[in-house]
């Protein structure tokens, strides 16, 4: 239930990519997979919620949401410009592995911006390509300030683009001073290492908001995790020997920590061409009888799906269990639909 629940900017790491279906080189999804990792209460909170504030905080990148979350928590607030709130405001999150917070983003100002999709291709004079004449080209240093700033923001103030499609952004009142947008007045811009063409492909606008970000501490990670355990944990007892072997394999072969699991086969798994035996079918039915970890802010899920994250107690320890199955193999319900 993470984003991978470890990173707001990364997408959820799945157990495998979509089976075949015209995807050359794709790994077929396994018939089933069970991963189990022992966790204390703080670890359960870390698994159950999106997590921010990892690392040492040394990265100054303004796009680093971890650093931003830490700043809001440590200083009480932060002011940022963005097209939407840069931190989630619809759910609690774990910050720095210790506290559970809810962020708020109050828009205090806004401004309109113009965005132009452009294609920039180098003119390779060394390969015999012709350079536009002096009346149809302009040196980067001679561009109006608004164009130099837009190119610098896109990363092309000190070198010629290698051949890219990018976006140049301007304040609406600055467009009139531009010689590049919306209609280029020159066939090429000349950087110190050579010229490149600039063609405008798209023209649009958007709103940038100024947000005042604040954070409200709602719980410690330990307390939130304890609540997760009390609400969702159930005992995986009374297993047959074959079922116990499955569970022990799921525990022994599941990596712990922040390792991303990109290949099918971590924990206990059945390959796409393997059929589940009676022991695993019965074990899946045990999971089906209990609720996966899910909160009111999570997306709706089909009630018939057993795939999900669970908290289970086994042999005196608490585990975060990730179960994924191809439902069409276990029931009459198709996986898709």
Percent in strands: 25-35%
Number of strands: 13
DSSP helix count?
A: 7
User: How would you sum up the major sheet?
Assistant: 8 strands, mixed
The CA-CA distance between the termini, in Å, is 21 Å
Shape verdict: elongated
Mean pLDDT: 85
**Unreliable stretches covering 5 or more consecutive residues:** 1-24, 258-265
SSE layout and pairings?
Elements: E1 32-38, H1 41-48, E2 51-52, H2 65-75, E3 77-82, E4 93-95, E5 99-122, E6 137-139, H3 145-153, E7 164-170, E8 188-191, E9 194-220, H4 221-232, E10 234-235, H5 241-252, E11 268-270, H6 278-288, E12 308-314, E13 317-325, H7 327-330
Parallel strand pairs: 2-4, 6-8, 10-12
Antiparallel strand pairs: 1-11, 1-13, 3-9, 4-5, 5-7, 5-9, 8-9, 12-13
Tell me what you see in this structure.
- With 337 residues, the protein is of the alpha+beta class.
- It has a domain of 99 residues.
- The chain is built from seven helices and 13 strands.
- The strands form two sheets. Strands 2, 3, 4, 5, 6, 7, 8 and 9 form an eight-stranded mixed sheet that branches. It has a five-stranded mixed sheet with strand order 10-12-13-1-11.
- Helix 1 packs across helix 4.
- The longest helix has 12 residues.
- The radius of gyration is 27 Å and the shape is elongated.
- The chain starts with 31 loop residues before the first strand and ends in a 7-residue tail after the last helix.
- The N terminus is likely disordered.
């Amino acid at each position: 239930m993470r984003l991978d629940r470890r990173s707001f900017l990364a997408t959820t790491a799945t157990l495998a990519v979509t089976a075949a279906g015209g995807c050359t080189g794709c790994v077929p999804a396994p018939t089933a997979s069970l991963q189990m990792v022992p966790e204390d209460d703080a670890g359960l909170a870390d698994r159950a919620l999106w997590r921010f504030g990892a690392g040492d905080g040394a990265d100054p990148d303004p796009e680093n949401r971890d650093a931003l979350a830490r700043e809001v928590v440590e200083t009480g607030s932060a002011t940022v410009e963005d097209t939407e709130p840069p931190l989630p405001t619809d759910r609690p999150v774990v910050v720095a592995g210790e506290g559970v917070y809810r962020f708020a983003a109050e828009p205090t100002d806004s401004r309109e911006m113009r965005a132009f999709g452009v294609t920039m291709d180098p003119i390779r004079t060394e390969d015999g390509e012709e350079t536009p004449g002096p009346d149809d080209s302009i040196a980067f240093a001679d561009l109006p300030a608004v164009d130099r700033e837009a190119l610098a923001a896109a990363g092309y103030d000190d070198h010629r683009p290698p051949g890219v499609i990018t976006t140049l952004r301007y304040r609406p009142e600055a467009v009139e001073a531009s010689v590049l947008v919306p209609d280029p007045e020159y066939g090429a811009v000349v950087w110190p290492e050579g010229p490149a063409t600039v063609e405008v492909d798209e023209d649009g606008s958007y709103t940038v908001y100024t947000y005042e970000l604040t954070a409200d501490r709602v719980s410690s990670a330990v307390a939130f995790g304890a609540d997760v355990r009390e609400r969702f944990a159930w005992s995986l007892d009374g297993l047959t020997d074959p079922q116990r072997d499955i569970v022990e394999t799921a525990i022994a072969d599941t990596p712990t920590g922040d390792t991303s699991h990109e290949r099918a086969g971590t924990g206990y798994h059945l390959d796409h061409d393997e059929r589940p035996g009676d022991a695993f079918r019965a074990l899946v039915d045990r999971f089906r009888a209990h609720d996966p970890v899910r909160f009111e802010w999570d997306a709706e899920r089909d009630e018939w799906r057993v795939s999900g994250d669970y908290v289970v107690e086994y042999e005196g320890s608490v585990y975060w269990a990730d179960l994924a199955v191809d439902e069409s193999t276990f029931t009459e319900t198709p996986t898709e639909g």
